[in-house]
Design goal:
Blueprint lengths: L3 H9 L4 H8 L5 E5 L4 E5 L8 E3 L2 H22 L22 H14 L3 H10 L2
Antiparallel strand pairs: 1-2, 2-3
């Protein structure tokens, strides 16, 4: 005899394609040009290592979304917990690193020469990465 709890568990282990697609949208994805590969590379680092490659940025993004959906479906089917999605609000905005004092001095002087704070200079530079 099947209990109500077993039915609930069975139903929670069966997700529709729409539900899987919605779950996959929670994971950050990005596509960027790779000089090394001479093509666009799309990644979803919280779900899988590696990426999707191609010459058409929009097509790479569509393929990346499809791979992310497939990965979520496989993890769900295998009973593997999905990784916790991270959003911008999950990050404090602080980024602390140790660097050589001479490098720090050079960056501080460069910032002063451009009329920026050291934080603005580093933030602007990192945003380009």
């Amino acid at each position: 005899m099947t209990t109500a709890g077993q039915l609930k568990q069975c139903n929670s282990n069966t997700r529709t394609r729409t539900q899987i697609k919605k779950l996959a949208t929670q994971y950050p994805k990005f596509v960027e040009w790779s000089e090394e590969d001479d093509c666009f590379v799309g990644r979803c680092p919280l779900l899988f290592v590696g990426g999707v490659h191609g010459n058409d940025e929009a097509k790479v993004y569509r393929e990346l979304c499809a791979v992310a959906e497939e990965r979520v479906g496989i993890l769900h089917k295998d009973g593997t917990p999905l990784p916790k999605p991270k959003r911008s609000a999950d990050y404090s905005g602080k980024f602390m690193i140790r660097i050589d004092p001479a490098v720090r001095q050079r960056l501080a002087l460069k910032a002063v020469s451009t009329g920026e704070s050291l934080n603005q200079l580093v933030s602007r530079t990192l945003a380009k990465a």
